[in-house]
Amino acid sequence: MKATLGTIILYVRNVELLKNFYVDNFNLKVTEEDPTWVLLNAGAINIGLHTIGEQFLKEIGEDYKFDNNTKLVFEIDLDIESARSEFISKNILMREIKTFENYDFWLCDGTDPEGNVFQLKSRKQ
After folding, report:
1. What is the pTM of this model?
2. Maximum Cα–Cα distance across the chain
3. Mean pLDDT to the nearest integer, 34-40
4. 32 and 77 fall within a common domain
5. Contact 106, 122 (CB under 8 A)
6. Residue 94 to residues 51, 103, 125: CA-CA distances in angstroms?
7. For 113, which DSSP code?
8. What span, in angstroms and rounded, lies between the C-alpha atoms of 48 and 44?
9. Mind listing the pLDDT tens digit for each residue in 76-98?
């Protein structure tokens, strides 16, 4: 069997909020949309944003931040310090820039409005 990963789906409280976050900050394109679902093209893969089931929405508050073990990694064509500064200026929570020995990239993690972790990845010059 040959398998190809085409879409990653995040279950979210507010599809519109997250759609705007990823479109505005990563310039992703909307390819499908309805009130409970958005599909964003992120290059070789799509990111689906799907509303959490009603039974679960009743159990979480408006300011609830999700805690999961998924991280979306975006390779960017901007230097990492400029990108991090731009995100911070938009009040997006960003961690410190890091790298690893013998690794060709700078990395910086942030969180979207619902607490999902993303990473900026910028090639070292």
Report:
1. 0.84
2. 49
3. 96
4. no
5. yes
6. 25, 21, 22
7. T
8. 13
9. 999 999 999 999 999 999 999 99
CATH code of the domain in which 24 resides: 3.30.720.120
Asked if 20 and 50 sit in the same domain, the reply is yes
Mean pLDDT of 29-58: 89
Domain assignment of residue 47, given as a range: 1-64
Distance CA 94, CA 85 (A): 9
- Is residue 65 scored above 90 in pLDDT? no
Is 19 in a helix, a strand, or coil? helix
**DSSP secondary structure, 34-102, as one string:** ETTEEEEE-SSSEEEEEEPPHHHHTTS-TT-----S-EEEEEESS-HHHHHHHHHHTT--B---B--TT
Token representation of residue 115? 């607490």
